[in-house]
Design brief:
Blueprint: E1 3-6, H1 17-24, H2 30-43, H3 52-56, E2 63-69, E3 72-78, E4 85-86, E5 89-90, H4 92-111, H5 123-136, E6 148-152, H6 159-174, E7 178-181, H7 190-201, E8 209-213, H8 215-218, E9 229-232, H9 236-246, E10 249-252, H10 257-270, E11 282-286, H11 291-304, H12 307-310, E12 314-317, H13 320-341, H14 365-369, H15 379-398, H16 400-409, E13 412-416, H17 418-433, E14 448-452
Helix pairs in contact: 2-4, 5-9, 6-7, 6-13, 10-15, 11-17, 15-16
């Protein structure tokens, strides 16, 4: 049996005895099991695998324990994966990420009663929680330079797309912009890798590569090796809110349902009348040959949310330098607006996010079948429901609880207005044909059926 003890690093090295005792109280909870799985994912950092069973099954004997010390708490790893070690020493970045998991899952989880699933339910309380978790992770204090670009895109992308994400990241890095992604492989890794080279060329030593995940995603998509700030939000809705509140601009690369979910979430928010005047740089971009992908996305948005939603973004094909220029210019408009509003540079408090975009949506056969996918509702509500539909498909594709439901009860059933369902069906079929649902080489079995009213 292999045992490794780790000293605390960062903020977690400064805990009081009361705080340590509270951490100990979580060790018999369901949350602690989730904490164990997230730590196992972190120890597999850099492994390209989106099947949680394949990732976890070789490590049934892995355990992680808290060891109370006068100056804080140590972690003890029992039978950890060898991939996290070099010459029998744990990789330093992995060491730091393990204590990030401890901070977010157990310390903050205990503070906000995730153990009992009693997190704040009102809108302002949720935003305050998101801010507090980012502040404890020290994301906020370093976010005043208006240079954080959030990059969204698929974890399952081909080599051409991947190289393009690196090229865009490189151009952003040359302009001393920092990168925030979902922290996994593919379009989440490429921009960070490119930016790291751009930062090195500019001798920019404050490069930040922020990865924001959530428990059910990180278990299927381990953090990539470039991430130097890891944050784990309690659910997908708070993860998405964290992205849009700290971003000074967003770039979206080709992806699958998860990327479509993110775009619909943001467009639903930007379509709110209180956000109409707020500059929010948003670029959809990909290499030559991706025109068809973006035409399909653009047509889908136009046919469901309308021209107003289409006006919220611009599409740039095969021009990384132009993407970086547009985002840099956009960040200056963000600065002017925040100064005029008296809003913080580090956290976008003035962005209005409706309650329906904040409340956790738990995909199940019942909740997926109940989604209102018709046009006879406000556009923001339709955007929210479309987002939930795609979120459920992400769960059925890669999340442990979703995969289990599909295995036991069959695919989710989505029903709605015939034209909308036909457009969803066509978009999803394109994702499948382009191998954007699962990592390349993996045969995809749909976790959904499309029904037209």
């Amino acid at each position: 049996m292999k045992k490794i003890q780790l000293n605390p690093v960062g903020w977690m090295s400064q805990l009081s005895q009361v705080e340590v005792s509270r951490l100990e109280d979580t060790t018999n909870s369901e949350l602690y099991r989730m904490f164990r799985n997230c730590c196992l994912a972190v120890l597999n950092s850099g492994v390209d695998e989106d099947n949680y069973e394949a990732l976890f099954s070789p490590y049934d004997s892995f355990e992680i324990r808290l060891i109370k010390r006068e100056r804080g708490v140590k972690l003890e790893l029992i039978n950890p994966p060898e991939v996290g070690f070099v010459d029998n020493r744990l990789v330093r970045g992995v060491h730091e990420h393990l204590f990030s998991v401890l901070r977010d899952m157990l310390y903050m989880g205990n503070k906000y009663a995730f153990v009992h699933q009693q997190a704040p339910l009102d809108s302002s309380g949720i935003t305050d929680m998101v801010f507090d978790m980012l502040r404890h992770a020290k994301v906020i204090e370093s976010n005043n330079d208006l240079n954080t670009i959030v990059c969204w895109g698929g974890h399952s992308i081909g080599l051409t797309d991947y190289k393009y994400t690196k090229d865009v990241g490189y151009q952003l890095g040359l302009r001393e912009m920092n990168i925030c992604t979902g922290c996994g492989p593919g379009a989440m890794k490429g921009p960070m890798k490119g930016a790291a080279i751009g930062h090195a060329k500019q001798r920019f030593k404050e490069g930040r590569y922020i990865g924001i995940s959530e428990p059910s995603i990180i278990a299927a998509e381990p953090p990539n090796a470039i991430v130097n700030e890891l944050v784990i939000m309690p659910d997908i809705e708070k993860r998405l809110e964290a992205f849009v509140r700290i971003a000074h601009g967003i770039v979206i690369f080709p992806g699958g349902v998860g990327t479509a979910e993110e775009l619909l979430y943001l467009l639903g928010i930007l379509s709110h009348e209180r956000n109409a005047q707020q500059p929010y740089p948003l670029v959809l971009t990909g290499p030559a040959g991706s025109e068809g992908y973006f035409e399909a996305i653009h047509d889908f948005i136009g046919s469901t949310l309308g021209k107003s939603a289409q006006s919220k973004y611009q599409i740039i094909i095969d021009d990384p330098a132009e993407v970086a220029k547009v985002l840099c210019q956009g960040s200056k408009k963000v600065e002017q607006y925040r100064l005029a509003m008296g809003d913080a540079f580090s956290f976008n408090w003035s962005l209005k996010i409706e309650d329906d975009f904040q409340q956790p949506f738990i995909p199940s056969h019942k909740s997926m079948a109940a989604l209102n996918l018709h046009r006879d509702q406000p556009l923001s509500d339709l955007a929210s429901n479309l987002r939930k539909a795609f979120s459920g498909i992400v769960a059925g594709n890669v999340k442990a609880e979703g995969v289990k439901q599909i295995r036991e009860l069959g695919p989710f059933h989505l029903s709605g207005e015939a034209d909308i369902m036909s457009r969803i069906d066509a978009l999803l079929k394109q994702f499948v044909a382009q191998q954007r649902m699962k990592l390349p080489g993996t045969e995809y079995q749909p976790c959904y059926t499309i029904n037209r009213d």
